[in-house]
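Supplementary Note 3. Input sequence used for the single-chain structure prediction.
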Amino acid sequence: MITFEGTCPVCSASEGFESADGWFRDHLLCRNCGSLPRERAFHWALERFCPDWRTKQIHESSPAERPVSERLARECRGYIGSHYYEDVPRGQTRDFFQSEDLQALTFPDQSLDLHVHLDVMEHVNRPDKCLHEMARTLKIGGMAIFTTPIYQDRTSTMRRAIYFEDGVEHLAEPEYHGNPISGDGALVTFHFGQDISDLMRAWEPRMSVLRILPDDPTIGVVGSFRDVFVLTRVS
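The predicted structure, written as discrete structure tokens, is reproduced below.
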């Protein structure tokens, strides 16, 4: 068992972190709440860059049964969770979650303070449209805070699959990650590389882009794929 002492940003407990596997991304758990490194990295960034998040209008795309999503929903009065339901019209709800497409949101212009999501961008067909929609629906000064895997050994972003109206074209061996609403998983469409911040700035000039790579065992954020992005609408 590998252990680290420290305080969890998600639940504030000081019971430390432990993993029975060297792949910390999926195994280094908070001893109290069970959060993972990317969840702790996200919540650390949320508290640092938007400490008054509880008073904001927050949209979380693709929340899962995890401590960080549960805390957002519990403590923020303006919280809206959404999933990409193929069989529910956009803007309508199912099981308290709104049906939304991050590439074509139903929220009015400048109506939200925060967009948040964990490991969603690598599954979308058009990340440029996602950034445009987040910028459109954010108030000036509003933020998008999210995680997505960045491959340290890739200089350029690699597209792995393309969605078309009549199906999917695979450009690489299909890869799937967990999906909170489907046991079939979520298809990975991109492996983002070191050019991702420049791409985001080009896709949406209204947003400033800050990429953070926390590496701190005292908050349980170590290992691979711990990047957090803080985008701010500046115009």
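The chain has a mean pLDDT of 98. DSSP finds five helices and 17 strands in the chain.
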